[in-house]
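User: Fold this one for me? It's UDP-glycosyltransferase.
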Amino acid sequence: MKPPKYFLFLVNLLYSAECLKILAVFPYTARSHAVTYIPLLEKLRESGHELRLAAFFSLKYRHADDIKLLIPPNSEIVIELDSLVGSRFEQLYLAHFLHSEIANKRCDFLLSSKAFGELLKSNETYDVILTEHFTTSCHISPLVEKHQTPFIVIHTNALMAWAAPWVDVPYNPAYMPVLFLDFPLRMNFWKRLDSLVMWIYVHVHYYLVIAAQDDSFLKNPKGIISHELMQNASLILTNSHFTYHIPRPLVPRTVEVAGMHIEACQQLPKHIDKWINESKHGVIYFSLG
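Assistant: Here's what I get for UDP-glycosyltransferase.
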């Protein structure tokens, strides 16, 4: 006996309308990071998913139980752009130590903060955790350990060389320039050698400095598990695209989502649109942002 059509319709409707309870934690204060994933979070909430947000920013669709993280009082945590300007050696190599120092201070502040402690003490359950990863995973491990739930990671840049093994993505520096190098896809011998040196350096720095800093927080009751937990990420979203990054082989667990923050085009005011279209010799558009 075949089930009635309306029964199949109701089953399909219930299945397609299933919503998730999502814990979204974004501990970085950088505005350039937030603009990348805010549209995704707003779309999730707009679509009916129950989104619990813990961040330094708010969304259009606000909930009363969202946690507003406090800005770290230590101004040294903020990156001064002047400190990233210098010789090629300073920009490519010494800047990594600046990022690791900032990551260490941020972990120390975040793991001891009252707001983050509330998340770890809460008895709420979630279907998935959505969070950003940038240099350190200190905030991810205790959340996953507490809630025992799948987690999705957002990279606000292209996939780092040391993060590629987490999702079994091949990363051969002989024909895939390391992210920090502005090299073309077709490299000569010296550029390949430079790429190899950078590939070795970023791995050594990550495992001996950043990962070691993360592991040091294990002494804290709110501490973390090491970077090995990141291999269990269900999905990694990267702010990259093959049209302006070099095409790379990826696996299903890694998805490029660059451009998801771009909103639909809006029509120009009528007088400007008329002026542009009636210009006989074209128009030069100059913008300061």
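One thing worth pointing out: The first helix runs from residue 5 to 16.
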